[in-house]
Design brief:
Growth Hormone, Chain: A; 8 helices; 0% strand
Length: 220
């Protein structure tokens, strides 16, 4: 009643009861009822994390390929980090009105467009603007995605399901910087490297389209 500012009235004779919850099992995540959701969320966590960390880990080096000095590169990254804050706020505000799915798909799609602009930028101004947009939209989507993952599962499987999500992220966090580092070491061009990274963000958008919306639904 207090949190709803009086909108929800709890009867005086109401007794609160905590239901007994059975511990979920790993195999339940991949039973027919949840197989599609589990596979999609694991893949999204992998591709989304790859697309984000594959770029961010090597961003100073990639920027030097475009002519920036190392101090300029770190200044560039610091300014980009500031764009993450309004991205989180905007995504949070919009999600309440339009739902998780629309905002995540919209924000990651905008990240793909910004990534394309970043990969093909011809001027320093375009490089800055596209990366600022990339930081704004990609981090905004991350903020909503963490909530959406948990809502995809019933209570007994929520922690296990989230653990698989984090595992997929960590695997991507290991593989992406290593492979992108190899591309940089072998002299792959800035455009090809960043386009390759951006392709994972595009795959993320496609996969997200098939995940069910949970906004406004009662959780199990």
């Amino acid at each position: 009643a207090r949190l709803s500012r009086g909108a929800v009235q709890v009867p005086q004779d109401c007794q609160l009861q905590v239901d007994t919850v059975n511990r979920g099992r790993q195999r339940e995540l991949f039973a027919p009822a949840l197989l599609k959701v589990s596979a999609l969320q694991i893949l999204v966590n992998f591709t989304f994390s790859w697309g984000y960390w594959g770029l961010q880990t090597w961003l100073p080096t990639l920027l030097q390929q475009r002519g920036l000095t190392l101090p300029q590169s770190y200044g560039f990254i610091a300014l980009s980090a500031l764009c993450m804050i309004p991205g989180y706020i905007a995504a949070s505000w919009l999600t309440h009105r339009y739902g998780r799915k629309k905002i995540i798909v919209g924000f990651i799609s905008a990240s793909v467009i910004a990534g394309y602009g970043f990969a093909n930028s011809q001027t320093l101004e375009m490089l800055y603007l596209s990366n600022f947009a990339l930081a704004f939209f990609s981090l905004g989507a991350w903020g909503v995605w963490g909530t959406w993952i948990a809502e995809l599962y019933p209570t007994r499987l929520r922690t296990i399901g989230y653990a698989w999500a984090i595992l997929a992220q960590r695997i991507a966090n290991i593989l992406a910087p290593s492979l992108i580092g190899a591309l940089v070491a072998y002299g792959t061009s800035f455009n090809i490297t960043t386009t390759f990274i951006n392709a994972f963000m595009l795959v993320t958008v496609v996969l997200t389209l098939f995940i069910p919306e949970t906004e406004g639904k009662t959780l199990d």
